[in-house]
Amino acid sequence: MFSRFLRRHVRALRLPRWGLPDPGPPDAPLVVFANHPSWWDGVAFMMLAARALPERRMFIPMEAAALRRYSFMRRIGVFGIETGSSRGAVAFLRVAGRVLADPAHALWMNAPGRFQDVRERPVGITPGLVRLAEIAPNARFLPLALEYPFWSERKPEMLAGFGTPILAADLLALGREARAERLRDALTVTMDRLAADALSRDTERFTVLVQGREGMGGIYDLWRHLRATVTGRSFDARHDAP
């Protein structure tokens, strides 16, 4: 369902050549922490978990009020959290601890805990993310940058790049404030690197995980296709076709 939805509304899901994920050893659970620029982040998580990290079972925290509107997502690893209260924070850590107790699992979460533009600095880091190393000392923390620019087609690009993983043991050697800065720095570096590739608009820098539909679509592209066929030319629906 998510794959069909993405193909209909996004030009392509692309990963830069440097941004393929390093899941690490199979005996260590994974925490994927991303920026939070858009509503599309949930779809990005679903597609990346299935296409880039299929060996890890995905779990995603979502605000409980929002999850009530998409209750079917509970069946595919999404769990609700009550934001803005100490009880909700405790419940999140309890569930996250159960998830990360299994090395075959991956916990995906938006680091800022709120929508935040890709250009906003500093990048937000929630206290819950900082505490995860304490409850999962053998985990690996993998930064993920997300961005959705419009290039030369009517649909946006979905760009995603994974950064260098951090060991929980290295985070535990730091105090909580320094730990938050380490996570923030890793995510910021990954976001800045993805932004440079996004600015280039060079599709050759990327690997395509999911290809969406291109061109105008509808009657106009049908007419262009028929005209190309009649004149013996190949048809390319892209606006930037050579």
TrEMBL record:
It comes from the Bacteria. Signal peptide: none annotated. InterPro entries: Plipid/glycerol_acylTrfase (IPR002123). Keywords: Acyltransferase, Transferase. Residues 30-149 form the Phospholipid/glycerol acyltransferase domain. One of its GO terms (molecular function) is acyltransferase activity. This is Lysophospholipid acyltransferase family protein. The lineage of its organism: Bacteria, Pseudomonadati, Pseudomonadota, Alphaproteobacteria, Acetobacterales.
